[in-house]
């Protein structure tokens, strides 16, 4: 079963794999997220930005991850997606 990109749970399996060792293909997944963001409904943008930030963080691109989390928080209504983006941003120390 594959979690949709618009779910905040999408990147978690990649995060778990990264804990076990190097994960190939994450750049391609991040590019797929960019494509999904380009065509996304406004309500889906915060979750997509959150997932993009998590993947960029795994890849070691902390600045781009922080930018994704900032955009996700800015586009999220009050609630869980705003919290997740802000929490991830705090975890990065940004």
Describe the secondary-structure layout.
Blueprint: H1 12-20, H2 26-38, H3 45-58, H4 62-75, H5 80-92
Task: Describe the overall structure.
The relative contact order is 0.16. 67% of the residues lie in helices and 0% in strands. It has a domain at 50-94. The longest helix has 14 residues, at 45-58. Helix 1 runs parallel beside helix 3, helix 3 (45-58) runs parallel beside helix 5 (80-92) and helix 4 packs antiparallel against helix 5. The protein is mainly α and 94 residues long. It is built from 5 helices and no strands. The protein is globular and about 35 Å long. It has helices spanning 12-20, 26-38, 45-58, 62-75, 80-92.
Put the structure in a nutshell:
This protein is mostly helical.
Features:
single chain, 94 residues, mainly alpha, 5 helices, 67% helix
């Amino acid at each position: 079963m594959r979690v949709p990109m618009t779910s905040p749970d999408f990147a978690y399996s990649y995060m778990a794999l990264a804990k076990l060792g190097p994960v190939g293909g994450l750049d391609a997944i991040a590019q797929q997220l960019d494509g999904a963001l380009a065509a996304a409904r406004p309500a889906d943008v915060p979750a997509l930005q959150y997932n993009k930030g998590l993947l960029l963080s795994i890849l070691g691109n902390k600045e781009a991850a922080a930018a994704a989390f900032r955009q996700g928080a800015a586009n999220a209504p009050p609630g869980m997606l705003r919290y997740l983006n802000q929490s991830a941003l705090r975890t990065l120390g940004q």
